[in-house]
Amino acid sequence: MPSDCGLGLVPTHTFADCPPLDLICVPGGAEGVIAAAGDRETIEFVRRQAAQAKYVTSVCTGAFILGAAGLLRGRRATTHWAFTGLLPLVGATYEKARIVKDGNLVTAGGVTKEMDGTGVSYVATFPTEAAGPFVIAFMRGAADTSAPSTTVNLPAPFALTLPARELSRATDDLTFNWAPTSGTGDIDESVAGSCVDLILETIPDDGTATISRDQLHTSPGGSGDSCTVTVSLARAQSGQPDPAFTEGGSVTASQLRSGRFTSKP
């Protein structure tokens, strides 16, 4: 199985015949994490193995795979610094640390080594509704007064509308809208709640989307009662950091919008 950087990985077992593991380490990433979080076979494997593993660990956004498996509910955890605000959506309490240990659960942040390497990626969040160019100064520490900078174009803002306030997981689909659209490209979608499986996917930025009742099923091991579900959309645009700081790296600025509804059995 080739990785995204060409390294070939050769598994020795399938999910079905894998013996009990002593340690689970879930790596992070972007598209790979989104795909894995939406794959029931992968999530069931992680949940099943975690029930008997001595240590359950993750690096970077791999924490959200553990979250999708229901393993972060009521636990302290960390993840990539740009996504720590999403940890409560999978039931975790964010703790500001490079490595967080909660019992046999160990989660590590993203990009926790020195920032002087190459190929490092950054995500920027701006407290503004405006679009257009923003200058980001990258600082290695509080005393760094000569940090290089980069310019990133913040995508156009938009409004997210959820027509329904209550939905039945047994009978209802969820259709939501946003405007204005980008006209081209995609937008990242997440759906999270204590009583439903985590959904992470990339969809066309065309202004409307539907999540079927088949996707909004009760999370195994979760509550079968009602809960508040958060739907989030993130429109992102990439830029290039100053090569004096991180040659070959990237920076992403996003417009994030969220809405909530009540999911009922």
> How many helical elements?
3
Find the CATH topology of the largest domain. Answer: Immunoglobulin-like
Instruction: Specify Rg, calculated over alpha carbons.
Output: 19 Å
Question: What percentage of the residues does DSSP assign to strands (E)?
Answer: 35-45%
Distance between the termini: 39 Å
Question: Quick summary of this structure?
Answer:
9% of the residues lie in helices and 37% in strands.
Key phrases:
mainly beta, Rossmann fold, Immunoglobulin-like, 2 domains, four-stranded mixed β-sheet, 3 helices, globular
Q: How would you describe the overall organization of this protein?
A:
With 265 residues, the protein is mainly beta. It folds into two domains: 23-108, 3-Layer(aba) Sandwich (Rossmann fold), CATH 3.40.50; 159-264, Immunoglobulin-like, CATH 2.60.40. Helices cover 9% and strands 37% of the residues. It contains three helices and 17 strands. The protein has helices at residues 31-37, 40-50, 63-68, and strands at 23-26, 55-59, 76-77, 93-94, 99-102, 105-108, 121-124, 132-137, 149-154, 159-161, 166-168, 174-179, 186-193, 196-204, 208-211, 227-239, 250-264. The strands form five sheets. Strands 7, 11, 13, 14, 16 and 17 form a six-stranded mixed β-sheet that branches. A hairpin with a 2-residue loop joins β13 (186-193) and β14.
